[in-house]
Structures are given as structure tokens and as C-alpha cells.
Amino acid sequence: MTQQTTERTDVDIVIPSHSDRVVAGLSEAVGGPLGRHASLRKRFWTPLQVALLLTTLVFAFNWVQKSPCRDGAWENYDQYRNACYTDVLALYYAEELNKGYIPYLDHEVEYPVLTGIMMGVIGLPVHALVSSGAVDFLTPGNPNEGTVFYDLTALALAAFGLVTTWAVVRSRARRPWDGVIVALAPAVFVTATVNWDYLAIALTALAILAWSRQRPGWAGVFFGLATAAKFYPLLILGPLVLLCLRRRTTEARLSALVTVSSGVFTWLVINVPFAIMAPNGWSRFFRLSSERPIDWGTFWYIGTHIPVGRTADGKPDLGLPPFVWLGDHIPALNASAWVLYALCCIGIAALIMFAPRRPRLGAMAFLVVATFLLTNKVWSQQFVLWLVPLAVLARPKWRAILIWQACELAYFFSFYQILIRVSGGKSAVLPEAAFTLASIARWLSVAVLCGLVVREALRPELDVVRQDGVDDPEGGVLDETPPPPPRSPELEKHPVAAVDT
Fold it and tell me: Any bridge partners for residue 317, and if so which?
């Protein structure tokens, strides 16, 4: 007879070193995977605390990585050579916050309203303090308000990053360690404060958390706020509604109606005042979206930069003819991109309605956003941040995510090399073709992730999240996970049980 310690609270938590080969292999450096009967009840660091600490450290690293650009003295393409460029600092001046202009009312802003509000809430007080002479931020007589604006914005974005990690962990009761993937995704190190995207990302994560807790009204409010900051959260409502239709219960359909209704109402409350008071400033985002040409690194960019032969003077002849033509005809390009995305959405809808088992919300949310980026004419470097928490909700396996993130890093650094070249700099070390290859690798890595998610939707037994009887952790009213068996009175009194071996 021997005794082994077992605790009921530990059984419900998935240990990464037990369920993921990559983590198990890395754990050998610190003594190997956690013991099967190790007690976790009295641990000092909880998964949530670890994930939040790592998020804090990553944002601190990102601030250090961007620090060569914080003063705004960008000479000899330093912002590209050091890969530290950030829209936050550049647009403080481009959107004329340094002149005290109120976003939308005094100056047209290229972002949705809630992002512009965040810019103004931080930027206008900074400008007012500098203009009044109340505070000299850098040296007397020469305050650098752009630096302070970036630092305060970076601090706010770090707070939104913490909210994102917290929401992912809280929505995964059995897999809290998945939050560590959100915190440590390599692309976050270099893109976290390139733009204001973490505002929308945090609100989207809160929306999914609220839905998972069966709070459809609050889910809609957060979805409405998120869509008022960036467009992409709106896309997630499509899979949510279809999943509720497939569930075929009054509760699910009513919850979807409440979420969509409250989301639309919230978006209108934020947008309508600006649309009335400053219609030109408010609509600039929509006009710019329709007028923009092919952006760096997109599917359409790849098509216009693939070598197809040699010119008469021996130089590479770039671009497939249909893509080159679309690049010169923006309305046709817009239509083509939307048609491709519509086809992807039809495929996702068919998957939701006809898969052998109802797919998970997190997986379908990833698919609908990822395919939007795969087909869109714009794919800014920081858009990878949209996908990180969704990829973790869809498929929390380290190997595929790390491969994808490696491709994102390769794209990130090659992107700045191409910017040096097109700006006339002489310090680029990579050939121009390297950026096209990096763009292809990034596109394929996201497409492969989509393929893996689709495969696991068609073969639910391969879905690591659904192992051990779990149905849909983010599903809320959709979740059909059976309740845990009742505790025996004896186990309640004596959590340490004797086991014969």
C-alpha cells in the first residue's frame, strides 16, 4: 500500500507540459514536465499572475525596442534601420494634435471614432500642458511633447494588453496557461505599440469573455465599442449568429439577438454624434479605406511583385498581368478583394452549419478574421496583433503558433529593409526579393493555421481544447460541456485520498 496525493482542484486544469510537446521538450531544461501527482493548490504564482507578469515584461521590452524613435528625431532613416517606427509618434504631428486640434471636429482622422477619441484624450492634455509652459517635459524651453505622448500612449496600450491577457485566461477555466501564449507571442515584442490596435483587441477579448459568461448584453456593448475602434471585431458577430442558429434553442437565438442589438446601439451612440457634427472628419476612415491602393505584403502585393521573367535590359519583370491591372484600377481591386472574402465567408458558414459537430466560437472567430487579412488589400504590420488572442482561442498549440510567429518576425524586419530602399537609403542589407519571399511566408503561415483549424472542426477528436469532454469554453449558451460529477462527502472532508498501487 502506498499513498499518492490527489486534489480535486488540480484535475480541472490542463498542464501545458502534459498536453503540448513543445512545452514538454522545453521543460526538460528545468527538470522535465510537472509530476502527475504534484500539488498545485498552494502554489505562489497562479497561471493568471504569471501571464500578467509576462505581458508586463513584453510591453516593457517593446518600449525599449521603440526607444530609439521616441524623440522623433528621425534622421538617415533611423526609424527604419532600428525597426522602431511607430504611428503613435508620427501621427501625433500628422493628425495635428500638437496644434491642439480636436480629432474629427478640427481635423479629419483616418481611424474609427473610438481610436480618435483615445488619441485626443491623451494628446490634447499633453499639448495644453506644453503650450501653457506648466511643464517642461524634456529640457526647459524645448519640451518634446511627442515623446510624452508616445510614452503615455504606450502605458495605456500596456494596460489594454494586460486586459487582453486577463480576459483570455478568465475565459479558459481549464486552460489558463493559454494566456502565456498571448503574452509571449514574439510579434507582440516588436508591434505592440506601433499603433492603437490594442484598444480594439482588449475590447474584443472582453466581448468574448462576456459571451462565455452568458452576458449577451455586455458582450454586445464590448463588440460595439471594439468596432468603434477598429473594423475587424464586427466580423466575429457573423460566426456567433450562425452558431446560435445551429444550436436551435430559443435561449441561443435570443442571446445572439441581444448581442447584435446592443452592439449596434453602442456603435451608434459613439458614432452618430461625430457623424452629425463633423461628417467629413467622421467619414474619412471609410473614404480612405475605399481609395487606398495595394498595401505592403498583401496577397495582391505578392501578385504584383512575383518575378515572371526578364525585361529587355535584363532586369526582373515583376507582376502577374491580372494583379498589375487591378493595382491600377482601385474600384475593381476593391470588388475583387470583397468577392474573395465573401467566398471565404460562405465556406466558413458552410463549415459552421454542416460540420459533424458544432464548431467552437473561438475557432470560427479566428477563421473569419484571418481570411479577411488573407484577402484584403491592406495588411499593416500591427494587424498580427488581431490574430494572436484569436489564434490561441482557436488552436492553442505552441509549435504551429511559433512557426507562424517566426514568419511574422521575418516579415517585420524585411519590411523595414524595403522601406529603407524605397526611401532612397543606402543601408539596406536585404535584396528587394527578400521582402516578397517574407510576404509569401507570412501569407502561407496564416493560411496553414486556417487549414489546421478547419481540419479540427471537421475532425473534432483532433481538437486539443475539446479533449476530456469539454465542448466550447467561449461558447456561453452554446457550450454543451457536461457538468462535473458531484463531490462525495468523504472527498470534501478529506482532499487527500489513499490509492492502492
Answer: 309
